[in-house]
Amino acid sequence: MYEAIAFYLFSALTIGLFLITVMSKNVLYAMTSLAAGMVLISGFFFILGADFLGVVQLIVYVGAVMALYSFAMMFFDATRDIKEKNTPAALIFLLGGLSALVLVLIFAGPIHSDAIQALYPMHEGVGNAQDVGIVLFTKYLVPFEVAAVMLLVAMIAGIILAGKKMDQSLTKDTSVDDADEILKQKDAK
Amino acid sequence: MEVVSYRSVETFVQHIPEVTALGVWIKAIIILAVISAIAGFGTYVERKVLAFMQRRLGPMHVGPYGLLQIIADGIKLFTKEDIVPQNANKFIFMVAPVITAATAFIALAAVPVFPDFTIPEWIPVIGGTFVPSIAADLNIGILFVLGMMAAGLYGPLLAGMAQANKWGLIGAARTAVQFLSYEVVTGLSILAPIMIVGSLSFVDFNAAQAGGIANWLVWKQPVAFVLFLIAGFAETNRTPFDLLEHEAEVVSGYATEYSGMRWGMFFIGEYANMITISVIAAVVFLGGYSADGMGWLWIMLKIAFFFMLMLWVRAAWPHVRPDQLMWLCWKVLMPIAVINVVITGIVMMV
Known about the structure:
heterodimer, A: mainly alpha, Four Helix Bundle (Hemerythrin (Met), subunit A), 68% helix, B: mainly alpha, 2 strands, 1% strand, disordered N terminus
C-alpha cells in the first residue's frame, strides 16, 4: 500500500522534474530539478529494498556528479535565461521517434518477467552492501579493476591539464620585477 | 561466498517490541520538535559559553540570566519581513533554506537520537506504542547519514547562486569546494572503524563497543577519530572552518540576502547538523548508548560534550584562510586518512 503510493508519487515527480530539466531555459531551474530527480531515483532503490544502491545513488549522483555540474555553473549568470539554438525539425522527429520506440520496448519488458531470472539473488538476512561486495569482487572483479584504472588515468590527465602553468603566479605579473617598473609602465601609458 | 557477517541479523532479533508505523511517526515528530528546540536553545548556550570564555556575561536582559532571549529571538525571526531581492531567481531563493533544514532532519532519521521507550498504557489512542530509538533502522545507516549531509550541500549552493549577489556567489563557491573536499575526509576516516566492526549499521557499532570504556573504538582508531572531528567541523561550517559566511571577507556568504525565518532555517539546519555529527562521533567512537540503567544519560552527555567542544574551539581558535583550508584537506588530512585505512587493513589481515 505504502509502496504503491510512494512509487506513483516518486514516478510522477521524477518525470515532472526531468521534464523541467529538458524544457527549462533557466540553468538554475534545470540543475535544481536534475538534482532533485536524482534524489527521487534513490527513492526507487529504497522501495525495492536495495538500500545500499539507493545511498550510493545519493552520494555519487547527488553529492558528487551534480555538485560538480553546479560548480561549473558558477561561471554562468544563473539568474538569466539562455537563448537556445533551434535544431532542424526532421532531426528532432527522428531522434524523438527512436527514443519513444526504445522506451516502449523497455516498458514492455516486464510482460515477460517470468523469463527473467536473478543470476545472483540476494541472500536472506545478509546486508545489501555485503551482497553487492561479494558479486563485485568475484564475478565482476575484472570490470571493477578496469574502471579503477580508467579513473586513475582520468585523474592523472586532470592533474596534468590543471598543472600546466602551476609554476606561474596568477596574481603577480611575472614579466615585471619590482614596483618601480610597474610605475614606469603606468607613466608610459 | 561464505564470508558474510550475520551480526546484523542477531541484533535485529534482539529487538523484541514490534516497531509500528505509529511509533515511527511519533519518533519523527519527537525528533522534529526536540531538535528544533535544541537548535534554539543551542544559540543561547553558544552565546553564554562564548561570553564566559571571553569574560563577559552574554545575554542577561530578557528573563532570568537571559533565558527568555530564545523566545525573543524566535518572535523576531518569525515576524521579520521576508525579503526577496528583485533580481533573484525567486523560486530557488525561497526553496534553498528548506533544503538545508530538510536534509539535516532527514539525516537524523537514521541516527539513534534518544533511547527507545514505550508510551504508558493509560494515555488514550497512542498508549502502549513502542517508540524506537532510530526512526528508520537502516542496515547502512552511516552511509545514509553521510549521503544526506552531502545532499545538504545544495541548500547554501542554490541560495548563493539564486540571490544575484557577489558575496552570495563567492559563499556558494566556497560551500561547494569546502563540502566536497571534506566529504572525502569524513568518508575515508570513518572507513577504518567500519572495517573493524564490519557493518554500516549504528546498532552494530553500538553492540561492538558494549561493555565498558576499554571497548570504545576511539582507543583502536584515535587517528580516525581526530580526522572525523576535524572534517565534521568543516562540514558543519564551524569556526576554524567557517569560511562560507565569514563576515570579514564575504559579508555573510550564501546567507547575505536572507532575512527572517528563511535565514532561521539555515541556522536550524546548521545546528541539526552539529547534533548529527556529535551523535555519529559518540556512537561510532565513544561507545554509543546502552539500553539499561543510566545509558540514556551517558549518550546525552557524550553528545553534549561534542557540542561543547565545537563552542570551545570557536572561542579558542581563529579561522583559517581558504587556501589553508584546501591545503589541510588534500595535503594533510586525506593522505593521513588513506594511510590509516591501509594500516588498519594490514593489521586486520595479519
